[in-house]
Design goal:
CATH topology of the largest domain: Rossmann fold
Structural class: alpha/beta
Bound molecules: zinc ion
CATH class of the largest domain: Alpha Beta
Number of domains: 2
Strand content: 15-25%
Distance between the termini: 75 Å
Helix content: 25-40%
């Protein structure tokens, strides 16, 4: 790493870790507004897509989504990189498993999404150093800090993911030993290396952490990390307890996607939005304002613009403030994607009501604590269920949980049908709950039409 990148990294580490503190939420928001105004003033004229919007405030700028971001990819970055160029390079990296290539000094990466077109991100060298500083500040436990600064040995990080990136390897330095474990090769073949590395920080998708926890409990893996971090997937309650039991530590989460670094777990074990770097507008999903879809603006990234970008995720807020003293919004959970929401009918009516994934997870946890891995897929009025072990008693427990949940919510129980359990490979993103198709609401339309005719 070049000396100016290292200085940049250290500056952002210190600033994020100790300096960016606010007395109140109002103070944080006022500061954010100032930063955003300066960011827009400087960046809108430089970015082809936004040039015509210069002078506008954030609220007046268009809300975009993944489809728009991909369609206008070249106009939304200031490196004049086309989507074709970026995708070709990213795919070539994925196929060769060599993630170090760049395009004119810009790192290109692909999202690990499994559905629809994949997101593409661009970061400059300076942005990578800044990101690394912020990430280390958020992820490093306090007891590893003296080791990082004064210790004879580097802090060892094990990172399991579907694809590596220059972004992540920016962390590699004399003080940090970062090792990427390629999930395309599965989990088990990495065990000797993982054991030899003996990482202080273990980072992986939740279902991989769960597998490592299982191996540790069986005595097949003897690592004792000081921090365990779940990324890239919903952290399911059963995995969470298994991981915590095996490693004897609370699981932390980093909510990092193509569009930005959005949330992290604080030292009190609570998820916080990363509002010192990203502005997050909630698009509320319920009247009680407990769940929302985030519309994000990253006012710290300039190469590729992420301005009022509507994500496809559902977040649930935490109703109590966190005792760590941070004033950034605390979250109860990252629930999953918008298309993980199931839609069941109101009892005796046609109207559809949202059944959020965490309601399902809670119902299952309450019904059977020892339920193995499962899948739920809604296809119209039918709910297909699969269980890893295939035992009929387990399937009965799952059916009962779904029926009781429907009763509690005053909804009709969907037609429950079993399907075969298919285990994905280690590199695929696990989604236990999915709405493949919503039920038809034809009858409602007909009823309304009838009213009009009458
Ligand atoms: Zn906190």
């Amino acid at each position: 790493m070049k000396i100016n990148d290292l200085c940049n990294l250290l500056f952002h580490f210190v600033r994020t870790r100790w300096l960016l503190r606010f007395r109140s939420r109002a103070a944080l928001q006022a500061w954010q507004q100032k930063k955003i105004a300066a960011f827009l003033k400087q960046q809108l004229p430089l970015t082809p897509f936004y040039r015509k919007h210069k002078g506008l405030t954030l609220q007046d700028l268009p809300v975009i989504d993944k489809a728009i971001a991909l369609e206008y990819f070249q106009q939304m970055n200031i490196a004049n990189i086309s989507l074709e160029q970026a995708s070709a390079l990213a795919l070539q990296s994925e196929n060769s498993r060599n993630f170090s290539t760049e395009l004119d000094g810009i790192t290109v990466g692909l999202s690990s999404g499994t559905q629809g077109p994949r997101g593409v991100f661009l970061t400059s060298r300076q942005e990578r150093a800044k990101w690394a500083g912020i990430m280390i500040a958020r992820a490093l436990p306090a007891d590893l800090l003296p080791g990082l600064v004064f210790g004879a040995q580097a802090v060892k990080i094990a990172f399991f993911l579907r694809a590596n990136s220059n972004l992540y390897t920016t962390l590699n330095s004399k003080r940090i030993h970062f090792k990427f474990y390629d999930l395309y090769k599965g989990v088990d073949m990495h065990l000797p290396d993982l054991q030899a590395q003996a990482p202080a920080i273990l980072v992986a998708p939740a279902h991989i952490l769960s597998r490592l926890a299982e191996l540790k409990m069986q005595g097949a893996l003897a690592i004792s990390p000081q921090r365990v971090i779940s990324v890239a997937e919903v952290l399911e309650p059963d995995d969470k307890s298994r991981i915590e039991a095996a490693f004897g530590l609370p699981v932390h989460q980093l909510y990092q996607c193509t569009e930005g670094f959005l949330a992290y777990t604080c030292e009190s074990g609570v998820l916080h939005l990363n509002e010192e770097f990203v502005h997050i507008e909630p698009e509320w999903l319920d009247q009680e304002k407990t769940r929302f879809v985030p519309i994000i603006t990253d006012f710290t990234r300039t190469t590729q613009k992420v301005i009022r970008y509507r994500l496809n995720d559902v977040l649930r807020i935490r109703d109590a403030p966190c005792d760590c003293g941070r004033v950034s919004q605390a979250l109860a959970a990252i629930e999953g994607r918008c298309d993980d929401i199931l839609w069941w009918r109101k009892y005796g009516e046609q109207e559809l009501v949202a059944v959020y994934p965490d309601m399902i997870r809670h119902a299952i946890t309450m019904a059977a604590s020892s339920l193995p891995d499962y899948r739920l897929e809604q296809h119209g009025d039918e709910l297909l269920m699969a269980i890893q072990s295939g035992q009929s008693a387990m399937m009965d427990a799952l059916s009962t949980a779904m029926t009781e949940l429907a009763n509690r919510l005053g909804l009709q129980t969907p037609v429950l049908t079993s399907m075969a359990y298919v285990m994905g490979d280690a590199s695929s993103k696990r989604r236990r709950i999915r709405c493949v198709t919503r039920p038809e609401v034809q009858a409602v339309i007909e009823k309304n039409a009838g009213v009009i005719h009458a």
